[in-house]
Amino acid sequence: MLENIINASARIAKVANHTPVMTSSTLNEELNCEIFMKCENFQKGGAFKFRGAYNAISKLTDEQKLKGIIAHSSGNHAQGVALVGKILDIKTVIVMPDNAPQVKINATRGYGAEVIFCPPTIEDRTRVCDAEIDKHGYTLIHPYDNENIIEGAASACVELTNEVDELDVLIVPIGGGGLISGSSIYAKLSGKIPIVIGAEPLGADDAYRSFVSEERVLSHVPKTICDGLLTTLSERTFNYINKYVDEIITVEEREIVEAMKFVWERMKIIIEPSSATVLAALRKGRASGSIDDNLRVGMIFSGGNVDINEFFDKIYAKIN
After folding, report:
1. Which of 44, 49, 104, 192 is catalytic?
2. Which domains does the chain have, with CATH numbers?
3. CA dihedral 95, 98, 102, 107 (to 10 degrees)
4. Overall pTM surpassing 0.85 (yes/no)
5. Mean pLDDT throughout 46-62?
6. pLDDT tens, residue by residue, 126-174
7. Are 232 and 258 in contact (CB under 8 A)?
8. Is 67 in the active site?
9. 190, 3 in Cβ contact below 8 A?
10. Catalytic residue among 24, 74, 210, 302
11. DSSP string of the chain?
C-alpha cells in the first residue's frame, strides 16, 4: 500500500495545490512544542477531499467515465468530486443531506454537479445513491470506504513529511476515517512519524468508542458543529485505525471553537470546525500530559469551507 500512496501522490501533484505548511511562534510557546500545520483549507475545493476524489476518479475506465459518477456527502467530498468531474468532463451527481451548509451546496452546484437532497441519515444517503446507480449506471465515489480515496488522501501527509523532517507526532481529524487511515498508513509504513493521534468531537465520538471497545460502533446520532465529521467509520477505515493509530482524543464544542478562533485571529487563516479539532486535541493532550513537551507535531487542517454570510450580512447592515 505504501507504493500505491506514493504513486497516488505523484498523480495528484500534477493537478492539486501544494498546500502550505504554516507555523505559529505564539502557539509553539503556549504548548512548548514545534507545531507544523498542513493547510488543506487552501486545497482546490477548499478541503483535502479533492486529493482522494482525483485519485479515484482519474483511475476509472472510459466506460465508467462516460456513464457518470455519483457520491454522497454533506459538503467537502461533494465539492471535491464535483470539481474533479468538471476538470475531467464527467457527469457528476451528488446526494446531499437536506441540512448541509448552504455554502457547500452552492459550491457543489457551482462546479457543475447535479445535487439531489435526502434526509440527513447514512441510510437515506445510501438508499438514494443506490437508486440512482440502478437507474443510470453511475459509479459510486464513496467519501472514505474506497482504497483509492484513502491513498489519495494520504498525499497530504506525504507532502507534509517531504517538507518537514523528523516529526514525532501527527494529529488528524476523524470523520469517516479516510484521511486518518491514509495518513497513519503512510506515517507508519514509511517510518517517518512514530505516533499518530486522531481528533474527534465528543458529540460525534463513534471512532473513539470503536477504538476503545475494539468493535465498530454502528449506532450513531452525532451532535456537533463539525459538519465534516458526522459520518461513521466503515469496516475498512475502522481496521486501519485499529492497526495504525495510537490514540484518539475527543474534544468538546467549546474547545473546538476556541481553537478555531485562535487560528482565525492570530494566524489569519480561515479553517472550518472540523479542522480546529486537531489544535483542540493537541491542547487537551498537552494539558493532560498524554502529549509530551518539546515534540515536533504535525497537524492536518482538513478544510476551510465555512459559511460566512452571516458575518458579512452584519457588515452590510452597518454600511447601508
Report:
1. 49
2. 2-47+147-301 (3.40.50.1100), 49-140 (3.40.50.1100)
3. 10
4. yes
5. 97
6. 999 999 999 999 999 999 999 999 999 999 999 999 999 999 999 999 9
7. no
8. no
9. no
10. 74
11. -HHHHHHHHHHHHTTS----EE--HHHHHHHTSEEEEEEGGGSGGGBTHHHHHHHHHHTS-HHHHHH-EEEE-SSHHHHHHHHHHHHHT--EEEEEETTS-HHHHHHHHHTT-EEEEE-SSHHHHHHHHHHHHHHH-PEE--SSSSHHHHHHHTHHHHHHHHHS---SEEEEE-SSSHHHHHHHHHHHHHTS-SEEEEEEEGGG-HHHHHHHHTS---------S-GGG-SPPPHHHHHHHHHH--EEEEE-HHHHHHHHHHHHHHH-----HHHHHHHHHHHHHHHHTSS-TT-EEEEEE-B-----HHHHHHHHHHH-
**105, HSE (Cβ side, Cα atoms, 13 Å):** 12
Based on the residue annotation, tell me whether 192 is a catalytic residue of this protein: no
